[in-house]
Design a protein that fits this description.
The complex is a heterodimer. Chain A is α+β, with helices and mostly antiparallel strands. Chain A has helices at 14-26, 66-75, 92-100, 110-117, 119-128, 144-154, 177-195, 254-270, 302-309, 313-321, 401-413, 424-432, 434-438, 445-448, 461-477, and strands at 7-10, 30-36, 50-54, 80-82, 104-105, 158-166, 169-174, 200-204, 210-218, 224-236, 239-245, 276-283, 289-295, 339-346, 358-360, 362-365, 371-375, 381-383, 390-398, 415-418. Chain A has 3 domains: 7-106, 3-Layer(aba) Sandwich (Rossmann fold); 135-204, Dna Ligase, domain 1 (2-Layer Sandwich); 210-472, ATP-grasp fold, B domain (D-amino Acid Aminotransferase, Chain A, domain 1, 2-Layer Sandwich), CATH 3.30.470. In chain B, strand 2 and strand 3 (30-37) form a beta hairpin. The chains are: A alpha+beta, B mainly beta.
């Protein structure tokens, strides 16, 4: 075992930077954070042992600036870089540049990122090993005419999406020719801005699918395991809102579970995968599943897998990167117990679900037993429109799904965020909803059932009266 | 002391409250008289507040108490899908109910594209501009048939929440 202290740069911000910093510290390495000109005192820095200022105020100048980051890595004698999710986490050039500089990229090998990060190549590889894929373009679709031609072949509705995309960014559903014409440029622009790559794909859009993904854990010695599946079908605009592990749709069907998990392992083996990663599938109501894409990074919703398997994915990912021994030697070492749910807490309007950045006045969390809150909240902090609206992830676990849901309701009641519009109220409504409780919901669940419209919007005067009275008491205490 | 709660949204709403301390008893319970005015009514209420281990509890009668969700003084309150600004003692000038025809931004962001011209006739549902916030592009659409009377934004411009993007005139 290598007990040397490594200096690890965290190339990210927000809750994931905090999660990574804690993991680095726990392993006895040195966590090095980053701050930029548009976020000079980010909350994650307090968890880092050192931090470096990366000048610039757009993501292109900072978190996506390979040249500048390499300079920092060399100047400050960084041994390894953890990219988190988003930004450069799935960028082959970056991974290769680090390798050339003799620095470890905490993630899979560059070749695996290249193959799986590129949706066109990953689909081709999946087909080669007999993993079912959704019909669509084999490679990049260069212009609107080619998109229209292919769409006609495979039939509408189709999905226009960025080859380098992910997280719901850079993709739109088009139901006819008119929409393809309208959206092509929009998606291209979004893709270019978010991922530095404007290449687009076209594929058939499967109506009412379940989004089910398998967590992969692979070391650098050729061992590949799965850590069971997650269901992420509570979505809007392809943005996940609630995730569960295991999938309530698969339920007790252990044969189907084994099938989808082994399919994911098969694909990971084919690409020589050697880190944590996620193979995403969509599953129709007929329980047939298709490979969607592989995310070659740690994912936002990794905590629910951690809660049902007792595996710490972030520390494992770091240990694997340094080629250290990990406690998992064979598939049967991975066991699942109980059920876990994650609610993404976002600074957004609960009805329109549009980002609502603003000033976080204060917050409080009174957690029930069995809950975890991975967040980047600090009081008196400006939530900037420059970044993702997700400000935290509330996770609960229980012996079964009903208990996990009950605990989540308690956790949401214990979470008070003052000053920002958040989607907490939306989560409460989903958790009370009969369809959600039954566990058979597809990705069209939110829209189809008009869940957002069930939110009461009336201003109760009594609430304002109480607010005023408490405020006045506080002011009088301050002597104002 | 007078408090104003002013809605950020396009459909502006204002609630005015006059609060005065009636008394503080020996257990530290504060008794407030509050007069509320909204567009319809004026109401008078009595509220008891007690602080217990840093948390606030509220009562109507001084006997039955409930926990308050308010943690600290603040200038804004996020209330369900609303965002209310709170002003204590004064209301700054310039904050008025917005004109029906003003198209205001609902969040800070960047103007990606302006899709209409001054004096252009517009249809309900027609996209007027594309704004970007938190890396998502959002179309701003017309909510009625009418005309664009002025455009106050240009492509690439960064704007704050509540900024008047365009003045629109409704067609009769």
């Amino acid at each position: 075992m290598n007990l040397e202290h490594k200096r690890i740069l965290i190339l990210n911000r927000g809750e994931i930077a905090i999660r990574i910093a804690k993991a680095i510290n726990e392993l006895g390495h040195v966590s090095v954070g980053i701050c930029t000109d548009n976020e000079t005192s980010p909350p994650h820095l307090q968890y880092c042992q050192e931090w470096v200022h990366l000048p610039g105020s757009t993501n292109l100048e900072t978190y996506l600036n390979i040249e500048k980051i390499l300079e920092i890595v060399l100047t400050y004698k960084i041994d390894a870089v953890h990219p988190g999710y988003g930004f450069l986490s799935e960028n082959t050039d970056f991974s290769l540049a680090l390798k050339k500089a003799g620095v470890i990229f905490i993630g899979p090998n560059a070749e695996a990122i290249r193959k799986m990060g590129d949706k066109a190549i990953s689909k081709k590889m999946a087909k080669e090993v007999g993993v079912p894929v959704v019909p669509g373009s084999v490679g990049e679709i260069k212009n609107i005419d080619d998109a229209l031609k292919l769409a006609k072949e495979i039939g509408y509705p189709i999905l226009l999406k960025a080859i380098a995309g992910g997280g719901g960014r850079g993709m739109r559903v088009c139901i006819d020719e008119k929409e393809v014409k309208k959206n092509f440029e929009v998606v291209q622009r979004e893709a270019l801005k978010s991922f530095k790559n404007g290449a687009l794909l076209v594929e058939k859009y499967i109506v009412d699918p379940h989004h089910i993904e398998v967590q992969i854990l692979a070391d650098k010695k050729g061992n590949i395991f799965h850590l069971f599946e997650r269901e992420c079908s509570v979505q809007r605009r392809h943005q996940k809102i609630i995730e569960e592990a295991p999938s309530p749709f698969i339920g007790d069907d252990e044969k189907l579970r084994e099938d989808i998990c082994n399919t994911a392992v098969k694909l990971a083996r084919q690409v020589g995968y050697d880190s944590v990663g996620t193979v995403e599938f969509i599953m129709g109501s007929d329980r047939r599943f298709y490979f969607l894409e592989m995310n070659t990074r740690i994912q936002v919703e990794h905590p629910i897998t951690e809660e049902i398997t007792a595996c710490d994915l972030v520390t494992l990912m770091i240990q694997i990167a340094f080629n250290e021994e990990i406690p998992i030697k064979k598939q049967s070492d991975v066991k699942k117990l109980g059920h876990a749910i994650e609610c993404r807490i976002c600074a957004e309007d609960p009805i329109t679900m549009l980002p609502a950045p603003g000033f976080l006045e204060s917050f409080q969390f009174e957690p029930p037993q069995g809950s975890r809150f991975d967040h980047c909240l600090v009081e008196k902090y400006n939530i900037s429109p420059d970044f993702d609206p997700m400000i935290g992830k509330l996770i609960t676990k229980g012996l079964n799904r009903d208990i996990a849901i009950r605990k989540m309701k308690a956790a949401l009641n214990g979470l008070v965020i003052q000053g920002l519009k958040t989607n907490i109220i939306l989560h409460r409504i989903i958790l009370e909803d009969a369809i959600f409780k039954k566990g058979n919901y597809s990705t069209s669940y939110l829209i189809e059932n008009k869940i957002n419209d069930k939110i009461e919007t009336n201003i109760e005067i009594q609430d304002l009266v109480e607010h005023t009275a408490v405020m006045e008491m506080l002011y009088q205490e301050m002597g104002k | 002391m007078r408090y104003y709660f002013i809605d950020d949204d396009i459909e502006s709403k204002e609630v005015l409250l006059d609060v005065s301390l009636n008394k503080i008893n020996q257990e530290g319970v504060h008794l407030f008289n509050i007069k509320v005015k909204d567009e319809k009514n004026i109401n008078e209420k009595i509220i008891y507040i007690k602080k217990l281990s840093g948390k606030f509890f509220i009562s109507d009668d001084g006997v039955k108490w409930k926990k308050s969700q308010i943690l600290d003084v603040s200038n804004t309150i996020a209330y369900k899908n609303r965002h209310l600004k709170i002003f204590r003692g004064f209301k700054p000038s310039g904050i008025q109910n917005s004109e029906a025809g003003d198209l205001k931004s609902q969040m800070p962001g960047k103007v990606i594209k302006v899709l209409v011209k001054k004096d252009q006739e517009i249809q309900k549902g027609q996209p007027l501009a594309i704004l970007e916030a938190m890396k998502m592009e959002n179309e701003i659409k017309a909510s009625f048939n009418g005309y664009v009377r002025s455009i106050n934004i240009s492509e690439g411009q960064t704007i704050e929440s509540g900024f008047t993007l365009m003045e629109l005139e409704k067609k009769d």
